Amino acid sequence: MVNQILKSFPTINVETNYFLIKTNNGKYYSSYLEENRVGLYPLLIHVDEKGNYIAENKKKEKELNLFINQLKIDDIVLIPSSRNKKLFIGKITSQYYIEMDKIYKNVIWIKELGIEKLHHIHQFIHLAHPIICLNKMKYEIERNLYSIFRKETAFHFVLKVNQQDHILCKSLYGLYHLLLKEVYHQDLKIKMTIQSPGLIELITDKLDVIITIINVIKIIELLTKQHKMTDKEKQFIKIHDEIIKKYYNFEVEKLQIDPPLIDSKLLGLIKEEHESKKNIK
Fold first, then answer.
1. 263: left (phi over 0), alpha (psi -120 to 50) or beta
2. 157, 166, 179, 203: which could join 189 in a potential S-S bond, CB 3.0 to 4.6 Å?
């Protein structure tokens, strides 16, 4: 059961590295996406007398070494579109290979983001190098890559605050109150970006806290839905009547939260595991 739960969460390895791969001002953006790979355009590769791959000139060898030896399978790459309006994020899936004197690695593409989602990317994206390490902003990338994920033993839930105006202190406190009132405070860590729009990240390694977080997220999702609730959804709301009252008393709805989508199968697995542990006790 626990293994099923763990497999339901996207997993980020702590050893994952993050790189920006340039696309020659967007020229190769579409071809990278269509061919599911990235390369070091316009770098040309030659073979020396010992059979080693070398760059077309000495200045490019550092970048070639970075691409071959430091960009590894399961590392995350970002590529910018024309005029740097968008970024596509993917995961490296192969070793390097040479094709028509150019070097490539295969990628599985995961998600496209507007450039404004990554607030610190501009200090890197205008550098002249074709490949740039982004490990300094890995936490920001992770929060924008997945809305729920597992890293080591901790589970992360990312809530997006979409409003353009100021965040009400009462509303933000209300969200914290909803969560901390239901769980032991040391079992839950909360991080947030101070920008508006911004992100709120909830982190825990406790199964009962995961259930509480998912319940609160589910309530927010239902209360912000535009269409009519099903009977099952109405019953869920009724069971959590106290949380609903706090939600409105603290004006949490003014946060304009976009909650992560929680798979119903995952929720069922977690609740089943939680109940089995309670029965053992």
1. beta
2. 203
Three-state secondary-structure class, residue 261: coil
The CA angle 12-14-159, to the nearest 5 degrees, is: 45
Is the pTM of the predicted complex or chain greater than 0.85? no
- Helix or strand holding residue 179 (H, E): helix 169-180
- The pLDDT value recorded for residue 49 is 62
Taking CA atoms, 10 is separated from 20, 91, 176, 230, in Å, by 21, 13, 25, 29
- Which of 13, 14, 12, 32 is CA-nearest to residue 22? 32
Reduce the DSSP state of residue 53 to 3 states and report it: strand
The pLDDT of residue 199 is 86
Structural domain 16-145, CATH architecture = Roll (3.10)
Q: What is the mean pLDDT of residues 98-112?
A: 92
Please report, as a single letter, which amino acid is at residue 119: H
pLDDT at 84: 94
pLDDT computed for residue 281 by the predictor: 55
Give one DSSP letter per residue of 83-117, joined into a string: GG-EEEEEEE-S--EEETTEEEEEEEEEEEEEGGG
Average pLDDT, the chain: 85
Q: What is the pLDDT of residue 80?
A: 97
Which stretches does DSSP call E strand in 74-197?
A: 76-80, 86-92, 97-99, 102-114, 131-133, 148-151, 154-161, 189-192
Domain ranges within the chain, ordered by starting residue:
16-145, 148-280
Q: Is the dihedral of CA 200, 6, 277, 214 positive or negative?
A: positive
